[in-house]
Design brief:
mainly alpha, 9 helices, 70% helix
């Protein structure tokens, strides 16, 4: 709790100093709007895939991923984080200091992963987990490996869905009942042919 109160205190102090004229307001850096031109280390297809992942979890109104959306995203990816961990993920790439991730800042995570900047982090680190869970290098593991990766992801998502499991069990029970019914009908026809 001390970390978040210190952060708030620092922001309030800065705001007060700006109001008194003793400090200049923080200016955000101008960044390129064209992510394809800026992130040349990724193919257009890779950026489109990451954009799909981003849009899956971002706020539809603001087109950003805030703390709530990031929390939901990390839970869905199977790597839930603490509030402080989520704030650390955002802080690591938040260039405009709005405490949220734009699509460009989201791409910065994968730039850091590709550059090896995340190699020295713990396996439990939220930023590293997010980068690994949202990306896959098809060149490294091959198309067959990518297929297995995505099939495993689909299987994991499907297994977590309680209703799908119930529907699947119900369908299996109905199939078993139908097979038993067919077997009884065939047995009855055999017995009937004996009397004919």
């Amino acid at each position: 709790m001390g970390d978040s109160s210190n952060e708030l205190f620092a922001k309030l102090q800065h705001r007060e100093a700006v109001n008194q004229g003793t400090e200049a307001p923080q200016q955000t850096a101008r960044v390129s709007k064209n992510v394809y031109m800026e992130f040349t280390e990724f193919t257009r297809k890779q950026i489109k895939e990451l954009e799909k992942k981003f849009k899956q979890f971002c706020s539809p109104e603001t087109q950003i991923i805030g703390l709530t959306e990031l929390k939901f995203m990390m839970e869905k990816l199977g790597a839930p984080q603490t509030h402080i961990g989520l704030k650390a993920i955002i802080k690591a790439v938040d260039e405009d200091l709005d405490n949220a991730l734009t699509f460009r800042e989201f791409l910065l995570i994968f730039r850091k992963l590709a550059a090896g900047d995340l190699a020295d982090r713990d396996e439990d680190d939220g930023l590293l987990q997010l980068a690994k869970l949202c990306s896959i290098d098809v060149g490294e593991i091959g198309v067959g490996g990518a297929k297995n990766f995505f099939e495993a992801k689909i299987k994991m998502v499907n297994q977590t869905n309680k209703f799908e499991d119930e529907i699947r069990k119900e369908q299996e029970e109905n199939k078993t009942k139908m097979d038993e019914k067919k077997a009884r009908q065939e047995e009855f026809k055999k017995m009937q042919s004996n009397f004919a």
